[in-house]
Write a structure and sequence with these properties.
The chain has three helices and six strands; from the N terminus they run H-E-E-E-E-H-E-E-H. It is α+β, with helices and mostly antiparallel strands and 134 residues long. The radius of gyration is 15 Å and the shape is elongated. The N and C termini lie far apart (45 Å).
């Protein structure tokens, strides 16, 4: 399993380099890179045989109108058409994420994955913050 994980980490690093994003990425752990995308941050990580791009959005659900917030992020999931999706982690944090298998991942696909998560996170962080957290 460790060899598979190391191979996935190396594949991610080489693919980030090939798509021209390695220089913009900060390595924050084995097989884990962080990069700025406008007002958002995107973390790209390998987990087993998968690569995940995740933008941490909020540390917790809003204190007001949680139902409205959850409905809004589900509507935004539909708007994104399956290219990325909001998720609520067990600790209550809200993220925007997308992923796929590492096998066959080419530089254009990785760049698209990161651009998609980064663009949507950058677009929606301010809107959600204004409507639910302020």
């Amino acid at each position: 399993m460790r060899a598979m994980s190391e191979a996935s980490s190396e594949k991610l690093k080489s693919t980030l380099k090939a798509c021209g994003l390695l220089d913009a990425a900060e390595e924050v752990g084995e097989g884990m890179y962080r990069m700025a995308w406008g007002s958002a941050t995107v973390v790209c990580v390998t987990r087993g045989t998968a690569v995940v791009a995740m933008a941490p959005m909020f540390e917790a659900l809003p204190k007001k109108d949680v139902g409205g917030f959850c409905q809004k992020i589900l509507e935004l999931n539909a708007e994104m058409g399956g290219t990325a999706a909001f998720a609520i982690h067990a600790d209550g944090s809200v993220v925007l994420q997308s992923g796929r298998g590492v096998a066959g991942l080419d530089p254009d696909e990785l760049k698209l994955l990161l651009n998609t998560v980064g663009k949507f996170a950058d677009d929606y962080d301010d809107i959600l913050d204004k409507d639910y957290y302020q």
